[in-house]
Amino acid sequence: MYQQQNMLSFTPDANRIMTQSNNNGIMNYVSGYPQEVDVKLKKLAFFDILATLVNPSLLAPTSSQRLHENTLYFTLSPTQATEIASNRDIRNATRVEHIVQVQLRFCLMDTATEQDDYFPPNISVKVNGKQCQLPNPIPTNKPGVEPKRPPRPVNITGNIKASPLVTNTVQVSWCSEFNRGHVVSIYLVKKLTSPQLLQRLKTKGIKSADITRNLIIDKLKEDADCDIATTMLRVSLICPLGKMRMSTPCRASTCSHLQCFDACLYLQMNERKPTWNCPVCDKQAVYENLVIDGYFQDVIASKNLGPDSNEIQLHEDGSWSVHVLKSDAQTLDTPVKPAQKVEIISDDLEVISTKCDDKSGSNHGVEPSSTTGVTVDLTLSDSDDDLPLKRKQNSGNSNR
């Protein structure tokens, strides 16, 4: 393990914010440097900390204005410089991927709990005089609200000088917030992948099936005391993320539900965009609290589970059975409305019959007589519509 380093070494009074009054009575800020504070940042699942290059330090105001600037210094050891240079992917010439990285993190000044990443307003970072790219601010439609950047660490490896003979300089400028302080720190970290985290999760151990079985029994006992008792629970074997059967069922120990999700898909999703929210209940499900459920792992590996069975039923004794879907289709004896028979006689005439065929079928194929139907002449003009019905019929018969 690397030795902890901190290059914030200044004169004894350099860490203080010195002020003095001029002839007009206005207070001037002479100098200000980051001061080390006892703040702990939350551990990032996809990064292992190899060394601390700059301890968490409070960004100190440098003037009476809102905009301030501080400078940090750190130097790599020969071993650290070698680790950075030897652990990189140079297959893409336009963008070199470093496995061992120098990571810059910001958070709020709060010693009570572990802090999430948090960027100060209007922040700008220069490493060795070069502008460092920060996460893009999240747009907002609220008037008067400044857009905030996503809470992520900043990889500054591409801007540093990986040499033990050169001191790296990090300049941070930001705007102060009322009644809030901000902390900065720099670490040497190793980037991990989702398959590596999945292997660590499996190595950590599998939650005993008996624990889940007792949880099922307790849940059904609680429902038995209600007015409407529940005799079984239905659980899906489909992952809510990938919409396919789970291969490694897991859930967070902080969640109270029985429904699991696939650990592999969950880690891949957070590798692309780290949110760490449970896809079932939407509560925080950080990596440290994830456990593989042995009960549902046995269910998925069971020979009693068919390839098309995606739901199971959990019973009062903690056992399970395959949920069989029942067909909801029913045959309804509803009367059928007889259809009207339409016979085309010529281009201008048609006969419409409203008389139903005999049930015995003896009249099938028999043409309707002229007495059972009404012949309508479609070539009549609009003025003929006012004639009595009898005259219309006679006129139609004469035309035919």
TrEMBL record:
The keyword Zinc-finger applies. CDD domains: SP-RING_PIAS. Its main location: nucleus. Residues 224-305 form the SP-RING-type domain. Residues 356-400 are annotated as: Disordered. Belongs to the PIAS family. This is Uncharacterized protein. It comes from Lutzomyia longipalpis.
